[in-house]
Structures are given as C-alpha cells and as structure tokens.
Specification:
single chain; about 220 residues; alpha/beta; Arc Repressor Mutant, subunit A; Rossmann fold; 7-stranded mixed beta sheet; two-stranded antiparallel sheet; about 15% strand; binds 1,4-dihydronicotinamide adenine dinucleotide; NAD(P)-bd_dom_sf
C-alpha cells in the first residue's frame, strides 16, 4: 500500500493542469479571469474548479473572479513547487537517459543528483555532467546524500527488488515507470506512469465510432 492522500486523487490530478494553464495566462499578462472564463477555457465546470480549490481554502471573489498571479502562486505552493527536490534515476537505458536529458524538470525544482545502472559499459558515462554509477554504490550514495525522489526506469523483473532496496535506504517517494504494481510501505509515496495507457486511450478514440456503430448494427 502506498501512502493515501487526504484530498481525493482526481482533484490532485487536476491541479497540475490548473497550474500550467495559469502559468500561460501569467505569461500573456492576464491579471484577472472570471471563473466562467477559466472553466470554459479549461473544459471543466466553474463549480468543479471552485470545489477543487475549496479543499485548500477559498479563492476568488463573487463577481471578481480569480487574481491570476495570486492563484498561480497558491497552486505553486499547493503543488510543493516552492521547494526543491533531489532526485536519482535508476536505469540509464532509453527512458532513463531521456528523463535525465530533460532539463525542464530542473527548472521546476527537481534536481537530478545521481544516475545508477547495472551495466558496467555505462559506468562513468555522463549525462549533463552527472556520471552513471554502479548500482552497487546506491546504498552508500543514499547514506551520504539526501534524496527525495527515486525515478525507476528498469525492466519490471528487477523493479520490486529495487523498490525494496530504495525503501530500506530511506527513500520516501518513487516515480515508477516500470510496468508493474510495486508493493511499498504506507509511508512511501508511489506514483506510477504508464505512457502506454495514454496511447491506448488515443487508439480507442480513433476506433470508437466504428466500434459503437458495429454494436448498433449487431442489435
Ligand atoms: P532499456 O533496456 O533501454 O533500459 C533499462 C536499463 O536498466 C538498462 O540500462 C539496464 O542495464 C538497467 N538495469 C536493469 N536492471 C537494473 C538494476 N537492477 N539496477 C539498475 N539498472 C538496471 O529499457 P527502457 O526502454 O529504458 O525501459 C525501462 C523501463 O521503463 C522498462 O521497464 C519499460 O517497460 C519501462 N517503460 C515505461 C514507460 C511508461 O510509460 N511507463 C515507457 C517506456 C518504458
């Protein structure tokens, strides 16, 4: 069991989108937005936005709408983006390297401190000045460096053993890309990413009309 959030997960999943959208408004120098305008642009009802934000105290005033900068700053704080985080990547294959090379995470405060792999051919190679280390050095590294988030990019067969090692070494948050349901203690936060779920949703939608048409014709 991973740590359960207090606010419902669907609400939490909407927050990054609000934040992203408000950032765009700020960039375009928009100072204020009505809840109706915000909801229309985001494709969420105004009451949904209000309810979501009410979990964290009320924002916006009747008839005034939202002060864009204020709401953006509040969401920044709610999402914990007013702090920085140290991360490590386990598995420096295609995915691990792509994530390591993506500098935007750093811009948002997620600082990559170490990359580990099991393949000796990768040891010593650098990605953005960070050396790929032997995964045997992981526990020693974690005892000397305060790491907040481990990013797991290894084949699924090795993932549970690696998660156990990370938890034992004190890691409290795992961003898991391995296609496996990991078992972690209650005080560890596990966030799974499945790009393929999104791709399959896309392929479903490409086929939906035909699928439902056939169903009607079968009747
Ligand atoms: P890859 O084979 O290119 O890289 C895997 C790397 O992990 C290799 O360098 C290998 O030496 C290393 N490794 C294996 N066992 C290890 C261990 N115990 N400790 C440290 N390093 C270890 O594979 P790729 O394409 O990078 O995929 C990695 C994982 O991510 C796979 O489980 C894959 O299924 C998953 N994946 C998930 C996606 C998602 O959306 N969730 C998208 C793409 C890949």
């Amino acid at each position: 069991m991973t740590k359960k959030p207090i606010v419902p997960m669907p609400v939490i999943r909407r927050l990054p989108r609000y934040h992203r959208y408000l950032e765009e408004l700020l960039k375009n120098d928009v100072k204020r937005i009505s809840s109706r305008e915000l909801s229309e642009k985001m494709g969420v009802t105004a009451s949904q936005i209000r309810q979501d934000l009410n979990n964290y105290g009320g924002f916006g005033q009747q008839g005034y709408g939202y002060n864009v900068e204020e709401l953006y700053n509040t969401l920044t704080r709610i999402l914990g983006l007013d702090k920085t985080y140290s991360t490590i990547i386990i598995g420096a294959g295609n995915l691990g390297q792509a994530i390591a090379n993506y500098t935007n995470f750093e811009r948002t405060g997620f600082n990559l401190k170490g990359i580990f792999d099991i393949n000796p051919r990768l040891f010593g190679l650098k990605i953005r000045d960070i050396e790929i280390m032997d995964v045997e050095l992981l526990e020693d590294f974690l005892s000397k460096n305060k790491i907040d988030i481990a990013i797991l990019c290894i084949p699924k067969d090795n993932s549970q053993i690696m998660a156990d090692r990370l938890v034992k070494a004190g890691i409290k948050a795992i961003w898991n890309f391995s296609p496996i349901d990991l078992d972690v203690p209650d005080d560890v936060i596990l966030e799974n990413v499945h790009l393929s779920d999104s791709l399959l949703t896309l392929s479903y939608r490409l086929n939906e009309d035909k699928l439902l048409k056939n169903k009607v014709e079968e009747k």
